[in-house]
Amino acid sequence: MYAEIRAVDGGSGRPAVAPEILFTLWLYATLEGGVGSARAIARLTQNHDTYRWICGGLPVNYPTLSDYRGAHGSILAEPLSLMTALLARSCPVAGLPFAITS
Fold first, then answer.
1. Are 89 and 99 a contacting pair, CB within 8 Å?
2. Which pLDDT tens digit goes with each residue over 68-80?
3. Which residues, in sequence order, are CB contacts of 9 under 8 Å at separation 6+?
4. CA 94, CA 36: separation in Å to the nearest integer?
């Protein structure tokens, strides 16, 4: 994924967002809130502390999120499916997709 980044040190524009940050944003947004929209995730990175923490306080715009998902959707598919299955299997309340237990 790093080979596809065309940003260079000292060049114009903002630095590229690390692929692991984009991966984490998509994974967390999908599992935590069922968010599947790049625009919605971009808004969360501005308004929600957890998402700002994931980004290290740096802005992430929706075209970057959308481009990442379009280019690397297959990389996201397996972990999302695995995590969803694990959460569904561990849900103690029948009929609910997920439950948080302490």
1. no
2. 888 777 777 787 7
3. none
4. 25
Q: What is the DSSP string of 6-73?
A: ---TT-SSPPPPPHHHHHHHHHHHHHHH----HHHHHHHHHH-HHHHHHTTT----HHHHHHHHHHHH
Q: How far apart are CA 68 and CA 27, in angstroms?
A: 12
Residue 86 — φ and ψ, nearest 5°? -65, -45
- Note the pLDDT tens digit of each residue in 28-55: 888 787 788 899 999 999 999 999 999 9
The kind and range of the H/E element at 85 are helix 62-90
Ramachandran class of 57: left when φ > 0, alpha when ψ lies in -120 to 50, beta otherwise: left
